[in-house]
Amino acid sequence: MIKRLQRKFVVIAAVCLLIVEFAIIGGINGVNIYQTNKNADDLLNIIIENDGRFPEFDPKGMKHDKPQDNSDSASPPESKKPDKHRGFNEETKYQTRYFVVYADSNGEITKVDTGHVAAVSSSQAIEYGKSVLDSGKTSGTSGNYRYKTGDTDKGKIIVFMDCRSDRATKNRFLLVSCAIGAAGYILVCLLIIIFSKRAIRPVVESFEKQKRFITDAGHEIKTPLAIISANTEVLEMVSKPNQWTVSIKNQITRLNGLLKELLSLAKMEEEKPALTMADFNISDAVYDAASPFTTLAETKGKKLTIDVANGLTYHGDEGAIRQLVSILTENAVKYADEDGEIAVKLFISHNGKETDLEVSNTCKEPPQGDLTKLFDRFYRDDSSRSRSKGEKKGGYGIGLSIAQAIVRSHKSKISCKAENGIMIFTAQLK
Q1: By the 8 A CB rule, do 341 and 361 touch?
Q2: End-to-end C-alpha distance for the chain, whole angstroms
Q3: What is the pLDDT of residue 253?
Q4: What is the Cα–Cα distance from 269 to 419, expressed in whole angstroms?
């Protein structure tokens, strides 16, 4: 159980870390792609606004809309305005490779300008232009070029800008960030694995104390119970048995049964329970363990059917599997409706890799909510699983906990579901 808890801690921490890493790497790459595309679109807008050319930039990043006239002292000098394309310098137009396609109002290409790019000829520029005009898009990517269209007095202008360098930069940034993220993820996962034992140490100590308490308390309680039982028998020898001595003996029997199941549960939940693993005929084991409950079911007015596939073998502890069948069958008989039906089935699962043990019983009022709570210690949903008002249910609420511990000790799974008025417990034995 300790190793299982440690594995769950490591898995949960690793999954959470993976989600965070995906969010961070995806976020920074998304911002990088957005900013790169925005810079390219800003350059395209500059070229479109200037009819296919780059404007002259003020080295100080400021522009004068027109020269100042110092002769008129009454007129204040025109204020300097910040360049709206701040971030681009006078070298930008020499670093940017682009070509321009002009078209008239009818969509016919009238002129191309390929003087700022070497990889595209005039005929290729015309093909690029026609492709954009036919698509009807105003911006996007075509091959290695990002384009944008604009309207002029004579028709349309389409500017294509070479973005191979930007694309390579984005790809390199993505690969580097993923590589660094993967390395960091592996490193942190290793640290989580190394320190996971320390993280769950308080839980482990609490669990160990609980197991010791159950074991010690069980042995300590056996002595006073034996004395009480002996004293009760003496009282019955001195005087006749009466309702008080009978009640005392019944409660002693009940407490002895509870102690036995508690000790059995504590033993099954040990990290390495003493199980004798071997191949055995599970078909015979299931049938032999379930058959004695047929008579018990009949005395309660219920019907028990056993459907076991013949000749199935399983590698596990035969005694533990027999106990599992007994617990599930007894539970089904106990909580089945009056005049209800109980079914015990053993078959190979659909995937052919597991042996499924299925125990079901009719139940008009199945438990509500989370059915996994039925496997908790001392949990009994008596209000929803009641059979008749005058009938005692008995039990201690730990039988299903023992069943779950047996299944887990065989590295298998057990589940419970309620459908169409039937409670079904399924143990998938691997």
Answers
A1: yes
A2: 18
A3: 82
A4: 30
Q: How far apart (Å, rounded) are the C-alpha atoms in residues 218 and 376?
A: 20
7-42 pLDDT tens trace: 888 999 999 999 999 999 999 999 999 999 898 998
Closest CA to 346 of 297, 286, 289: 286
Q: Are strands 98-104 and 155-162 parallel, antiparallel or unpaired?
A: antiparallel
Half-sphere exposure of 271 (CA within 13 A, CB side): 8
Read off the amino acid at residue 129: G
Question: What does the block give as tokens for 32?
Answer: 């990088």
Query: In whole angstroms, how far apart are CA 103 and each of 109, 119, 375?
Result: 4, 21, 76
Q: Report d(CA 378, CA 402) in Å as an integer.
A: 11
User: Exposed, middle or buried by CB within 10 Å (0-12, 13-18, 19+), for 401?
Assistant: buried
Query: If residue 306 lies in a helix (H) or strand (E), which one and from where to where?
Result: strand 303-308
Instruction: Give per-residue burial for 327-359: e unless 16+ CB within 10 Å, then b.
Output: bbbbbbbbbbbeebbbbbbbeeeeeeebbbbbb
Task: Read off the pTM.
Answer: 0.52
Over residues 184-230, the pLDDT tens digits come to 999 999 999 988 888 888 877 777 777 777 667 776 777 788 888 88
Angle (CA) 8-11-13 rounded to 5° is 105
Our CA dihedral for 89, 91, 97, 102, rounded to 10 degrees, sits at: 60
How far is Cα 231 from Cα 249, in angstroms, rounded to an integer?
Answer: 10
> Is the CB of residue 341 less than 8 Å from the CB of residue 422?
no
With a cut of 70, list the residues of the chain below it in pLDDT: 1, 57-87, 214-215, 219, 264-274, 377-397
